[in-house]
Structures are given as C-alpha cells and as structure tokens.
Amino acid sequence: MKSVVIVGGGAAGLAAAIAAARDQAQVTLLEKSHSLGRKILASGGGRCNLTNSKIAPERYHGGRTTFVREALAKFKAREAEAFFAQLGLLTLTEPDGRIFPRCGKSHAVLDVLKAELERLGVEIRLGVAVRGIKRADDGFVINTAAAPWKQNEPPAAADESLGCDRVILACGSASYPQLGGDEKACDLAKSLGHTATPLSPSLVPLTIKENAFKRLHGLRVEAGLRIFAGQREAARSRGEVLFTEYGLSGPATLDVSREAVLGLAQGPVQGSIDLFPEFTAPGLNALLAGRAATRSKQPLKNFFLGMFPAQLCGALLDTLAWDAHRPLDSLGRDAVERLARLLQDWRFTVTGNRPWSEAMVTAGGIRLDEVDPQDFQSRKTPGLFLAGEMLDVDGDSGGFNLHFAWASGLGAGRAAAALNG
Q1: What Rg, from alpha-carbon coordinates, does the chain have?
Q2: For residue 202, what are the contacts with CB-CB under 8 A and spacing of at least 6?
Q3: Gap between the Cα atoms of 140 and 26, Å rounded
Q4: Residues forming a β-bridge with 243
Q5: What angle do CA 291, 295, 301 make, to 5 degrees?
Q6: Cα angle at 73 between 68 and 75, to 5 degrees?
Q7: What is d(CA 223, CA 215) in angstroms, rounded to the nearest whole number?
Q8: pLDDT tens digits for 121-168?
Q9: Is the pLDDT of residue 420 over 70?
Q10: What is the per-residue pLDDT for 110?
Q11: Which domains does the chain have, with CATH numbers?
C-alpha cells in the first residue's frame, strides 16, 4: 500500500485525497489553516460554480496551450458531473453553461467531499504548516510545524517529521490571502527543483481613470469589452459589466483582466466598452437614425428614453460634451454617427487592478514543461505530483478554474497511488 501525503486542503487537494484513497493508498492530508475548502465556500458568490458544460482548452491560459488540452482530455464537464453525482450532489446547469449545486449552496459541495474523505479513512491534519520536503530513499520526509492561528504570526518550530512514498503538492496560489492564499505557495515545489513564472492577479476588478465610469457605481450592463496593450488588442469578452466606485468589475471585466494586468507591466493599457455588442456598426447606425427621424427635435435626455438607465445617459452625454436639454438636430449632421461610435467604442484608461484579496485566481506558477500533463507528476522529482492553481494554468470565470482543480487533483491522486516502486 502506497503512503501518499497531500499538502493543501483546497479543491485540488481534496480531489487528490479522494482519488488516492479510492485506489487503496494510505492518505494523509495536511492543511495549514484550521478548516478545509475555504475557497470552495467562497466561490460563485457562495453558490460554488463547480464546473461548466462548455469546458474547452481555449478557455484556459498559461505557459503551454497543449498542456491543458492533454490534461483535460479525459476529464470533461460530464466527468466532473459524474464525480459529484457519485458523491450524492445534485447539480443544475444554467443557460450560459455554468454548473452549480442544485441547492445553490457551496457548503453542499464541501460537505459531500468531506463525507467521502471520512468514508475512505483519509487522515486529515488541520493547522499544520509544511516547513520543508526532502527526498529520502524511495520516498520523502516532510517537516511540519503547528501553523499560526493568525496570519502574521510566525509558525512554531518544526515539531514532526513525516515519511511517505509519494507527495502531492496542491498548495494553491496568491489569490484571496484572507482565505489562505500565499505568494509563497510555490516555494515547496521550488525546493524540489521546480521553477515558476511570475505571479499576477487574474479574474480581478480593474481600476479606471475616467470619472464618468466611477459615477455609474452599482450599474450593471450587458456589453462587449476589449483591452488594448499599446496598439495590440490583447483580450476581448462579452457579458455583464459592473461599474464601481474605482472602475469596472463583473464577469466580462474579470475575463479580460489577466491581459490587462500583464499589459500594465509593459506600458499603457486602454479599454473599450461596446454597449450594443449584438449590433453591427451599420445596424446600430440604422437604429439610431430611425429614432432620430422621430425624436431629433426633442431634448437629448428624451432621445435615450427606453435605451439606458438615466445615469448612463448622463455619463454618455458628458463624454460627448452634449447638453441634455439640446435637441439632436442642433448638434450637426454627424451627430448620429458620433453617438454610434461612442456606444460601440467607449474608450477608457486602465490604471491598475484591485488587490490580491479581490483576485479570484492567479496567473503564473510552476512551469508546465516541468510537469507531465498525463499524470501531473514532476519531471524534476519522481514521486512528486503537482495539482491545482499552483501550476501555471488559469481559466476564465464560470467554473473553469475549479474544473481544472478537480481534474488535476483526481489525476494526480490516481497516479500517485498507482505508481510503481
């Protein structure tokens, strides 16, 4: 019977523990905090968007596009659903492909995982910080300490050495430090020969220069978004955009945030909002011209009635420097064209991103060419496996990151339990 130690009690670590124990390994799970699955509970606004029916490699980003394709080849959305169905979880698929527990509570996901760990006899040690891992004979020796109760407290001196045949690192990443995220999550892998790409926040709200946007705080719109790094279009998305007091958030913003953050490290970053993404440019011009034919002599504030909330109308008029009390026909023959261009290409300047505490995931991590995508085993240290967000893989919002956590955790757990020698 193989002895397998898993470092990290998040999504990938819990999946790895279940898979290894199901294949008859003796499994010990070490978690530095004093509870399991804290990010699972917070995901999806407390509903836990656990996967997506539209899982595809192009929804992921990182060091090697072929890695995700190979890693997910045997674990599609239906496999994720089947895994949780076997645990007793009922799920519900929303029209956009996001899959949630049917009860709408993230606790349901964590509860079925914990029940399976208990059924399988997995030893769970909470409040245990791993200080170091070394090779020893055909296995590993893990030095641990009692983890601090408070974030800024130093750990106690190492108080135990734990031997095992195989190690799975599922240490997470830097996002959500209030839930246990740590920029040093990759350090254990580095100590065993691995290297990491730089870490940056992903799926994170963006700060914007323009005051017109900030005045729309709380407004949600369906829109298209584009990000430009220099003259290059770096990313685009479509969906809900949330205006905030600091800039932009919402699913569409989060999906372009990765490239915005990376672009800012190189130079200025601009963005564009398309408030009518379902229209072509000629189509929108025709729509506005039709309205102008009957409303061109009315005050502009009336021209927009039925199109937008009043606060958005005000921000658009301010951007154009148009008086809301003037009629459209007083603004020149090209007024409709100017308005149409703004509605489909409302430019803004990205000044930064919100802190790690608001980032859902991390871009960057352990280099993918150092890990086998078939079984997530280290190419640097045989018998070591790596899973989850500590790898240089990050997905779009909508359940893609949790799906990769389940896939990599289950794959690593099965391989660690089955590995010969």
Answers
A1: 25
A2: 61, 175, 257, 258, 261, 359, 360, 361, 362, 363, 394
A3: 14
A4: 248
A5: 100
A6: 100
A7: 18
A8: 999 999 999 999 999 988 999 999 887 655 555 555 557 889 999 999
A9: no
A10: 98
A11: 3-201+361-418 (3.50.50.60), 205-353 (no CATH)
